Amino acid sequence: MKALFFLLCLLNVLFFFSELHLGALTPAVEPPSNAPTLLLISERQTARRGAQISAYLDSAAAELQAKQISDVLQRLNPPQVALIFKTSAHTPKPAVSGRQQTSINRCYEAGPFNDQDALRRWANTERLNAFKPVYKPIIAASDFQVYYPAGKDAEQTRINKLMLKAKGFTDVWPITDGEIKGAISLGVFNDRQRATLYKTQLAEQGVKAEIRQRNKTRDELFIRFAAAQAASKNIAYTRVPDTDCGNALK
After folding, report:
1. Domain ranges in the chain?
2. Burial of 53 (0-12, 13-18, 19+ CB in 10 A)
3. How far is CA 245 from CA 27, 126, 133, 169, in A?
């Protein structure tokens, strides 16, 4: 019985593989058909409604994106607010004073002049009707002194003087007053260039000298006048307070 049972099982397995090999179990593939697909009216309406909804959503998204970009640009570049003031037809116009219509005189000062005659000739050339001479103290360079710096005490000054005489400098004298009291003067010159040249010569001999400018105060002649504009190119002039010109012309 067991042998018969196993024989039947074997026959069933062989039958199954034979049918599989012959394609009996493979589903048949239908050839493609060229016939148009049928579309129901309800499906067409649903598809059209979906297309409309999609187009509306796309348009709303584009408008929202454009608005966001515009808002960002406005934050980065705030618009300039132009204020426009409308004037009434009855608003009176500002009146122009006579002082504004005519040139306003200002006070000027020119100079210096060598003497009163030169001042008057210049005033006549500039056609000045009202003017007044004014003397002003001016600090001008007098000369340039070459000196050996002062020592820390009187003994050091005496040693410096002996050292200079040993080098052949006989025309020297101590400075007894002023800011460089105790220094030893080595020479006085009318211009700085000659003083600088002499200082260089001293340095070549081992003497470290210095130069100081000595000033003096002298009175210089100027003219003060009132005019709309001072445009003379022949002499220097400066603008001064109007009160100075008023006091000068009294």
Report:
1. 106-139+219-244, 141-215
2. exposed
3. 125, 17, 11, 55
For the record, the structure tokens of 154 come out as 């009187």
What pTM was computed for the model? 0.40
Output the six-digit token pair for 103. 């040139």
DSSP run (H or E) holding 223 = strand 210-227
CA distance 67 to 69: 5
pLDDT in tens, 196-218: 999 999 998 888 999 998 888 88
Check whether the bond before 112 is cis (ω within 30° of 0). yes
CATH number of the domain located at residue range(s) 141-215 in this protein: 3.30.70
Q: Give the single-character DSSP code of 144.
A: E
Other C-beta atoms closer than 10 Å to the C-beta of 188 total 13
| Pairing of β 237-239 and β 106-113 | antiparallel
